[in-house]
Amino acid sequence: MTRIKKYVAAATVTAAVLAVPTGAYALTSDKASAAPSAATPSAGVAKSRTATGSGAFGAGVRPAAQTSSVRVVAPGERVKAAPDVLLWLTGEGKHWSTPDGEQFRSVTDGNLDLTTPGISRQSEPVGDRYFHSGVYYGSRAAARVEITTRTGRTVRASMVELAGKPGWGAWYATTELPSAPKVLGPEGAGTGGAGEGTGGSVDFIRSVTLYDTAGRVLATLSSPAG
Questions:
Q1: Residue-wise burial string across 69-100, b where 16 or more C-beta atoms lie within 10 A, e elsewhere
Q2: Lowest mean pLDDT segment, chosen from 131-135, 201-205, 207-211
Q3: Does pTM top 0.85 for this prediction?
Q4: Angstrom distance (rounded) from CA 94 to CA 171
């Protein structure tokens, strides 16, 4: 049986409605082609440091190419999302694998309101980097995802979706690992209820924001700790 890695899951926010994230399930796919898709520096964030989400890659699966558009992928087509991380989509949702196993986030189990713009996040350490990914949904005009860390750094994520403008897709990026474990966020929540300065865990990611093609904010997922 595939071993499922525990991950840090941030609650999904859709137009002021909080949706409970689904769990992770071990699934497999037999399609093993690679698809280029990657982050590029954001031109629309003033006075922010912007960075791509992936590092150098070895042979086998091609890294995502630098592009400003959403990458269209075939069902089951593997994308090299980060070193030791593959990500792919099916009609049921987002799949990804790390050295600890495969995971899955559904878009068909009723936990996401696909009629309202929203975005979700899962985060986990992989090697010496912090891997973040999620599902964006509820708009066919989604064009950019940016995450902001607690250090004030803004990182533009890569975006992939299936053909035919299904109204949802996946995003992914990497950041540096937090300097202290307490800012990773507790398992299953991604945020610390106690907040900063009280000894509780604090989410390293301040926010994840989804923009449309005109640069307007469609949805924002923010840490309660601010």
A1: ebbbbeeebbbbbbbebbbbbbeebbbbbbee
A2: 201-205
A3: no
A4: 9
